[in-house]
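User: Please predict the structure of the protein below. I'd like the answer in C-alpha cell form so I can feed it into my own downstream comparison script.

Assistant: Understood. Taking the following sequence of 401 residues as input:
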Amino acid sequence: MKRNRGRAVLQKMASVKESITLSRNQSVVRSLCKRLSLDPRQFLDAVDVDIKSLCLNILKSKENEIPLNNDEMMKWITIAETFPVDNQDCCGFLSKLNEELVQKAVLLGDGLKTSIIDIIVFSTLYSFVIGLSASERNRVPHLMRWIDYIQNKEDLQECFEKTLVEKPIFEPQGSKAAVKVEADSTTNKIEKIKENAGSSKVETVRKKIASLKVDGDNDSAEKRKKSHDMDAIEKDKEVSISLLNIQVGLVRRAWKHPSADSLLVEEIDIGDTKLRQVVSGLAKYCSSDELTNRRVVLITNVKHGKLRDVMSEGLVLCASNGDHTRVEPLLPPEGAKLGERVSFSGHEGKPEDVLNPKKKQLEKITPHLFTDAEGVAKFKGIPFMTSDGPCKSSIPNASIK
C-alpha cells in the first residue's frame, strides 16, 4: 500500500515537472520566433524535447545569419536547459546568474545589444522570476535590472506580461552639495562659539551638533528605505495570485435562476460537510444538465452576496474566447482532490480570508489570467497546478474570469 502511494506521488511530481517544462519550451518557441520573424506554429508541435534541441531546430531556419558553431552561444543554451523546476534550486540558479550580470548589460555580445541568448534565457526563467517576492527580487538586483532591460528592449508583449521592476532610489548630485553647505554652516557656527568659549565647551557643542546631524541623516535614510520596501511589498501583494483561494470542486446539482434567464445556480462540493451555493452567468453557454457532475475550479474567498435575490458563495472560473461566443468552466484533472487548493509556482503565500471589494484585488489579478495555445490555464505564464496536473480548457488563447 505504501509502495503504491509512493509511486503515485512520484508520478504526480513527474507530471508537474513535465507541465512546467512544456510551458517553458512553449515560451522559448514563441519569443525566439518573434525575434527571428518566424511562424511559431511550425515548431509548437515539437516542444516535448529538450531546450537545446528545440533551439537548434529553430536556429537552423536562420543558419545563414546565425553561426551555430559558436561555443559561447552553445554554453548558454546548455545553461538554459539546466534551469531547475524546484523552487530552492531555482533561487540558487538566479543568484549565480545575478553574479554573472554584475558587470554586464546583456549575457552575450558587447555593449547594450540584446542577443538570441538573452531571449532564450529570459524566456526560460521568466515564469519563475515574476513570482518572486519584493525581498527575493532585492537579493538579485543585477538580474532584475537585466529582466527589465530585456522586456523593454525587445517586443515580447505578445509572449509575456510585463513585470514591474522597482528601480533603486536615485540620489541626485545636488543632495551632496546640500550636505556640503550644511557642513560649512556647522563649521561657521563652531568658529563663532570658539570666540566666546573655551575649547572644552567647543568640543561639547561639536559632538552635540555631529550627533544631531548623524541621527537626522540616519532617520531620513531609514524612512526612505522603509517606505520604498513597503511600497514594493504592497505592489507585489496587490497582484499576487496567492491572495485568491482557488479550489477544486464538483457540481452536485445545477438549476436555472428563478428570476434571471442568464444565470444558473450550482451546489458545489469542495470536500466540506456543506455544499457551497454559487450563482454563475453560464445559462447562455451550457445547460444545468451539462454542469451537473462536472468538475470545476472556483474562488472560495470572494465576499458572499446575493445575485438577484439568490445567495452566491463563490466564483466559478471560466475561459472565454475573444468575442465571448464560447464560455466554459475551467476543468481540473480527474485525480485532483475535491477542495484541493490550486497552486502557482513561486506564489506560495496564504490567501486572504475574504477578498476586500474596495481594494479591487480580483480586478487587478484577472487581466493576467488566460489559457495558452494548448488550453492550459495560466497566471502570467504560470500554470494552474493541482496534485494531478494543470487545469485546462478546450478554448485556447482565452481570457479567464
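That's the full C-alpha cell string. The chain has a mean pLDDT of 81.
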